[in-house]
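Need a sequence for this fold. Nothing fancy.
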């Protein structure tokens, strides 16, 4: 099934400018530079790549393939070049497995289930093997996101089972995983956990990692050494109840980052739900107050946009910003998308309830 939708945008209504004082000696007259923000496209075309009875919250781009992890033990990939697609299914006893996390190395895909027991599978990209590489049982077990630093070192985060968040790591390409002791992981506040909304709680740039929590407390856990040491950074995003806080974060580079979420139980509330950092996550500020969307499930920077352009999906639809989140424009009315990833600056893949879409910017 394939469906196309063309959305025209007005460049004139989207452009704006701000004044910036450049660094100059105090004895000189400051030079005023004009920074112009404007959209990099004027139209959006959306095609349906998959229409099935699946709930998909985790996708990753592997060259010309889009791998996905879904509910009822399902996973697979779509071939973007018109080649064959692949559908896999994992059965474990009588469990109804729901995979909300996915990551990859050069040769393998990793999918991680939520709930008790937590099950992590390694899927060979040649489709020949699906191996259980980690499992954890316990009433409080709930893993939310997974990511890799490189082809050897990986990390996954989950809700606390003790007084710290759950953290499992690998150093051998995902063959074996170990859970970190609370002696080496920051403690969490009462009611603080993570959301398995779009597999974007974990952001990695080089050896640096930022993990976004949510709930009654919503903090950034930062490490500059692959998780050996940690710093806890407070944020101004709305928090205080079980379903508030950060649901998603993305870093354009080691300095510019953006996080979103809000109040899941008040999906149209569009304040307190967008925050930005320009100093590597040391400080965060609210942005786009009473602008654009409400609850956001996933946010991603547009590649090659100098950290200016953003795309979000969530309960209000698909929204785009050209000025680091100050102003927003709805570009599509899909309200049941959970996650997005960019292939390049002109193409993104979005997934959610019963669908995977390709979004092209022209």
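Here you go.
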């Amino acid at each position: 099934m394939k469906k196309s939708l063309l959305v025209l945008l007005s460049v004139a209504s989207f452009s704006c400018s701000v004044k910036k004082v450049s660094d100059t000696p105090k004895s000189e007259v400051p030079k005023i530079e004009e920074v112009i923000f404007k959209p990099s496209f004027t139209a959006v075309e959306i095609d349906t790549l998959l229409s099935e009875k699946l709930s998909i919250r985790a996708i990753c781009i592997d060259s010309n393939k889009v791998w996905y992890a879904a509910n009822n033990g399902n996973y697979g990939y779509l071939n973007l070049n018109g080649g064959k697609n692949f559908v896999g299914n994992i059965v474990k006893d009588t469990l109804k497995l729901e995979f909300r996390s996915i990551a990859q190395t050069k040769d393998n895909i990793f999918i991680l289930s939520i709930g008790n027991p937590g099950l992590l599978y390694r899927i060979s990209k040649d489709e020949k093997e699906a191996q259980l590489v980690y499992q954890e049982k316990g009433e409080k077990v709930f893993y939310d996101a997974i990511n890799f630093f490189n082809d050897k070192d990986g990390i996954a985060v989950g809700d606390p089972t003790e007084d710290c968040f759950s953290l499992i790591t690998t150093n051998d390409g995902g063959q074996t995983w170990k859970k970190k002791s609370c002696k080496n992981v920051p403690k969490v506040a009462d009611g603080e956990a993570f959301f398995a909304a779009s597999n974007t709680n974990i952001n990695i740039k080089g050896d640096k990692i930022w993990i976004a929590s949510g709930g009654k407390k919503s903090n950034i856990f930062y490490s500059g050494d692959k998780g050996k040491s940690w710093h806890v950074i407070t944020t101004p995003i709305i928090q205080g109840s079980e379903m508030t806080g950060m649901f998603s974060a993305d870093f354009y580079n080691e300095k510019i980052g953006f996080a979103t979420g809000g109040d899941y139980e008040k999906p149209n509330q569009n304040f307190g739900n967008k925050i930005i950092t320009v100093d590597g996550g040391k400080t965060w500020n609210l942005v786009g107050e009473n602008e654009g969307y409400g609850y956001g499930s996933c946010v991603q920077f547009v590649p090659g946009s100098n950290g200016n352009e953003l795309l979000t999906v969530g309960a209000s639809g698909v929204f785009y910003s050209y000025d680091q989140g100050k102003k927003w424009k709805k570009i599509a009315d899909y309200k049941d998308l959970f996650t997005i990833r960019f292939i390049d600056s002109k193409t993104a893949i979005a997934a959610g309830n019963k669908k995977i879409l390709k979004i092209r910017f022209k």
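For context: Residues 4-361 form a domain with the Methylamine Dehydrogenase; Chain H fold (CATH 2.130.10.10).
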